[in-house]
Specification:
Elements (H helix, E strand, L loop, with lengths): L8 H16 L4 H19 L1 H25 L6 E5 L2 E4 H27 L2 H8 L4 H30 L8 H32 L17 H23 L17 H33 L2
Antiparallel strand pairs: 1-2
Amino acid sequence: MNGFGSYHPAVLFSYYVLAVSFSMFSMHPVIILASVAGGFLLFGAQNGIRKLFKELGFFLVLFLLMSLVNPLFIHNGETVLFFMNDNPITLEAIIYGSMASLMIVGVLLWCRCYGAILTTEKFLYLFGKLIPKLGLILSMVFRFIPLFKVQIRKINQSQKTMGLYATDSVADKIGGGVRVFDSLVSWSMENSIDTADAMKARGYGLPGRTNFTLFRFRKRDGILMAVMGALAAAVFTGFAWGSYGFYYYPYVAEISRDIQSAAAYLIVLAFMCIPGILELKEKVSWNYLKSKI
């Protein structure tokens, strides 16, 4: 498979840093929507449509909850819709909350995709020599996030098998959750110590140590890096020219529709869709080759 994850770790890391930065540091609706679209495209290409729709419910609930919180606490804006406990609920606050929620959803999507593509091995290849201790800690943190989900399920099933969930009462469920959390913390601490000791015994961080896997920077890595650099430079230029400027208070600004702004929007959309397009291209090619067997 020669999808996006098969590129050099430096290319992958550079892309994710830029994609998350563009998503986090701009509240322009076009950038936020482009980030969410690119994240969903990559997630769907990686995991399939069925898994995408399964996860869509979680992101939808998160979006609705965060969208409703902002107008309850922020009352700025000139378009008052109604009053709640003598506090105005404004249209601008609702729109801002919705855009902020979409931004967080987009960042979470990129983080989910990041963990599947930029593996621990690739992360250690990049930072194992430069910052060995910090690189090891960060790689362990990223690795423990999916491991926690698996371990929680194992601990919960073990406790059910042992009959520790005697009833379906709320108190029993809370007590079971506390036991699961306590076991999870103990397991994570023991596992992290074992991992650190094993890495030290194998000479991790010593001068002259080589990597198990050698990632060669090939021609296609250079081409993708050049395309990414050109698009990122164009996005930074758009920020400098104010093409991505936007405000929500005291009223919501209009989205610019001139040629310069349209070009800036297409550039950021193209940048966000790079990994998803590469993954889809590889999946289509792979399925086509399998159909010929």
